[in-house]
Design brief:
By secondary structure, this protein is α+β, with helices and mostly antiparallel strands. It has a single domain (6-185), classed as Roll (3-methyladenine DNA Glycosylase, Chain A). It contains three helices and eight strands, in the order αβββββααβββ. The chain has helices at 13-20, 109-116, 128-134; strands spanning 24-29, 32-44, 72-77, 81-87, 97-107, 152-155, 165-168, 182-185. Strands 1, 2, 3, 4, 5, 6, 7 and 8 form an eight-stranded antiparallel beta sheet that branches. β3 and β4 form a beta hairpin. The protein binds a DNA duplex through residues 42, 44, 51-53, 56, 59-62, 75-81, 83, 85, 99, 101, 127-130, 133, 170-174.
Length: 186
DNA sequence: CTGTTGATCTGCT
DNA sequence: GCAGATCAACAGT
């Protein structure tokens, strides 16, 4: 498995969201290797996207989305949940990131079960806040470099054909529902 | 400072 | 289907 290079994230946020489907998200922690195939993503941009955290400018919380591409943007929401994004945008664009919504567990299923305190594999990482809990991703991973063999990175995975990608409106948001920026594998 | 809202999940009805 | 957990950003006072 080869790690995706910085240039992979150096393109339009929506294109990167599509291309991340089928790739492997790898987490190294306490000597454990945990990995899963990315099965669902959402693109979030900037001024043309009222639903994005960055709409309205940079804040202390969202500054990672304005920073170097290929890094992790982790945010806290609803008082108890973390969600993880990969910073991605074309070079002439100010901000953007891809929310990783769902994984198919591959390695480290024992570790994930322990984190989530459940044994139902199909319920382990099928939601944005579930997968961060399963992979033990917190604000410590804010800004982690996904293009290096660090504690969190993304590698090559399955080949996904265009006909296998389903797009639709993003889930759980009320603004900008005309943007079909949710992508998943059939 | 105060009140509202939210890229969520769980558990109960 | 809906309440509850519980916090950061933001708009308003």
């Amino acid at each position: 498995m080869t790690i995706l290079t910085r240039s992979f994230y150096d393109r339009d946020t929506v294109d990167v969201a599509k291309d991340l489907l089928g790739k492997m998200l790898v987490r190294k922690i306490d000597g454990n290797i945990i990995s899963g195939v990315i099965a669902e993503t959402e693109a979030y941009r900037y001024k043309d996207d009222p639903a994005s955290h960055t709409y309205g400018g940079m804040t202390e919380r969202n500054q990672a989305m304005f920073g170097q591409v290929g890094r992790a943007y982790v945010y806290f929401t609803y008082g108890m949940h973390y969600c993880v994004n990969a910073v991605a945008r074309s070079p002439d664009y100010e901000a953007g990131a891809v929310l990783i919504r769902s994984l198919v567990p591959k390695k480290g299923i024992d570790f994930m079960s322990k984190q989530r305190k459940i044994h139902d594999i199909s319920n382990l990482t099928n939601g944005p806040a579930k997968l961060t809990q399963a992979l033990k991703i917190t604000k410590k991973e804010y800004g982690e470099d996904l293009t290096k063999r660090s504690s969190l990175y993304v590698t090559d995975g399955l080949e996904i054909k265009k006909s296998e990608i389903l797009s639709g409106p993003r889930i759980g948001i009320k603004k900008a529902n005309d943007k079909m920026w949710n992508f998943k594998i059939i």
